[in-house]
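Hi R.,

Here are the chain sequences for the assembly we discussed:
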Amino acid sequence: MDSVLTTCPFCACGCSLYVQASNGRPTGVAPSENHPVSRGRLCARGWNAHEAPAWGDRLTRPLVRRGGRLEPTSWENALELARASLTTLIEAGKDVGVLGSARATNEENYLAVRLARGALRTGSVDSFLRATYQPLVDGIVAVANGRAPAGTLADVEASDFILVLEGDLANTHPQAAHAVIKAVKAGARLVTVGCARTQLARLAALHLPALPGERGFLVAGLVAAAVAEPEPAGSPERPLPGFEALRGSVAALPVSEQLRQVARWLAQATRAGILVGPDGGPPERLVREGTAIATLAAVTGHLGRPGSALLPLPARGNLRGACEMGVMPHLLPGTIPLTEATAGARLARVWGRAPASALGLTAAGMPGRVAGLVVHAEDVPAVAPTGQDVLEALGQTECLVVLDAFLTPTARAAHVVLPVASFAEGEGTITSLEGRVQRVRPAARPPGEARHGWRALSELSAALGLPFPYRSANDVLREIGEVVPAYAAVADGTRDEAWGTFTSPPSDDREPTLRPLAADRVVAALPAVLALEGVFDWGSDPLVSLSPTLCRDHVSRRKLYPQGLVQMSRRDADGLGVRHGWSVRLASAHGEVALPIVLCNELEPGVLLVPYAFRERVAGVLGGRSEVPVTAEKVQ
Amino acid sequence: MANEARTISKRDVAGWLAALMRRAEVIAPVAAHGGDVAFAAISSPEQVVFDFQNSLHPPKQFVLPQTDPLVVIRRNGNGIELEPVRDAHPRVIFNLRSCDARSLAFLYRMHASDLPDGAYLARAENVTLVSLACTVPCELGFCTCCDAGPFLKEGTDVQLTDLGEHLLAEPGTDKGLAMLSEAGDLFRPARPDEERRRLELEEAAKRAFGAETCHFASAMRRVSTGRVPEELWGTMSDWCLECGGCNFVCPTCYCFSVKDMKQDGSWVRCRTWDSCQYQAFTLEASGHNPRERRADRIKRRFFHKVSAQYYLRDGTVGCVGCGRCVRVCLGTTDMPAVVEAIRKGAWNG
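And here is the predicted structure of the full complex:
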């Protein structure tokens, strides 16, 4: 039995684990006690990480669509077919795009960008989950004067005050939840914000209820409370640039005694941890939310303070890395603006060809719009905001090339399927929510004819006329170090002995810039607000859905509620005269739907949540928004 | 068999291990990445570490692997053909700690009673245990509360004690005695002063315990007589993140799930580790779940671990005091913390 240390492929906490393999198949997982993040502790997903690669429906040969069916072929034929189809589309002036993924390594995501902007000459390169993370980061970075989010989970554990903004951390980011629990046990004060009294909210000193979509509004209220204090303890000695304009912008916001209390706690804290769960909604609103959060940290003196952490939590594994590699339609690798000449010239020198600098389509904009689409390690219906409905648009693609380890629904819809290694056989690096870049090491060989993802993407680029100089994932990482400034230090040899390398220094003395805040409200004229719960469904992720142990809860829920469900507080259910399992009709300005209810004691009255897994069921009611006012009535 | 004690010079241990490796797979603690210690099959005697805090991942995986193939299922014409998978490969687990040796005895008893488990027994009966007594208690262990260490009187084939220049080897079974005899003149009979030294080390080790204790007896009385308030389980359950780690690293946990893995045109029915803390562990085909609340699952776990009902069946609590659940817990609901809460009727995080 072999045992290889690698990085956990699920959420973005950045735990390390040993994958054990026997006869070339992963058979188990063991924790690493000395790893600085996981310290021997894994969540249920981590403990079962070996299952999907071993039990899942693995792709072992390239497949091409002939007569409506996927048939095995050789790598040469598959690459040639992809090249011919994509070239024909481009020559005909049609749009093509590339989807990277939070499930892929940094090297693969970088090569996806190189494929798009270098080989296919398109700016349409994105990943679906970016929209739940990068806008928050953009808002934070603007206040922090360009500094990437900083802090570690160890900082959070050592904090004396912690603010958790939504996100059911116990489910979405268990290792982060552990840091919070440990801090609370050691006496830290915890404040949670959200529309549900989740597990962490029950351990909190105070829970601040916020309607879906109103997190930013609540944080703006905290800022108002903080700047209204005469002499906030712990705040910077002289006013920060823009302070007066900020104070003016929040002066009219209502400030409750609770908000004042929380602002005081935060200002008095020596070390504060602020954890920002992923959020849905329009990107502009998320940018404003990120701005409000960073502003709160700045005016209380915690932004950039050593020991204090402000961490937006990527919804999935390597989302931070994917964004930093440039899997974004509006930025180049290293989150550099498209128009920045030096970066463009650097890429041109390294690639031997100038990058396409056009603003491209977003991930959600691509299906149905692009004629040619290359998808790397992304199962589109699992992550698209439109869920299963996206398959119809995807079906209109004239050439769909899918690189994946598993036969996902997206791969089933493809014209060309290229089999690549799963995390258990892969090599490369991934970046955690802390900005820790860690190695993925192969515990087994890729099955059958599957190749490493970095190689498959390179070969596809080469087929399209952009040859590659890489002989290993490490060569790709070295090139990333040349074009992504924050990764320059990552590519040296030390990370094998150490536990990963940080992309950016944990803190520096850059002074924040304050800006006026604009607060968003969800106008709830109707008695209830309907929203989706979370922005990502683990049950749809191949590493969960193909794991016999991890898929059980999700499969069971789908069997019990094939038509979907809506969660409701007991008070709302009593008001409507309905019981658990009974149906209610939800109506908004956009449409209506009948759904069975599941009683949820954690929910605030007036909030109706539909699990993200069932988002197609309420698409008509939401009408493209992330939350809408609705009326609910009992279905007779 | 105590009077059969022998000693081996540390210089000769590599030769002994090399001899053992010729006739068995030798599993021993080795240095893994960045200071981690893990049990693994060794390829050279030099890999074995002697000075180590017990590995977080227990050696139970070598008799009860996380994925354990039991039966190969093949189509044969119109019928199907079943072929049991038996792994009777000879193995030596070397330098395992007293608590782990004790736990393997517990697991053996469990798999041998009632309906004997062939797949487990095939492995376990071909394993020889060479345990290393703990002269220094580990930081979080409480084996003294479970009669599972720091030294053992039974449950191991050979018990080693580190005497500095030498190792004292005490055979605990005929198998162990034969193993020492086969090693020939690498061993010599222990001198009386060496046996005295061993006893002194045991006493000193027992005295060094103290920080970690676990009052099983009083917890057992309360759990077994329904004197744990229901709300207490609910309160505790908010401090559990349902990772299952406590089950996976527990040397005495053996609960499993059964799944069929597709492999080269056939199916392999596998036993896989499962956790009673997972919501789906007791999920029934109808969708009904008798232990849907986490509080009920925690209650169930500790009922199994410390209730009188199981004590009478197993002759011991379901714990060997290794302290791994303290090290692995993603929340704060490890064995000593929960036992204390049960005993005091209150939870303090």
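The two ends of chain B are 46 Å apart (CA to CA). Residues 42 and 232 of chain B are 46 Å apart (CA to CA).

Let me know if anything looks off.

Best,
T.
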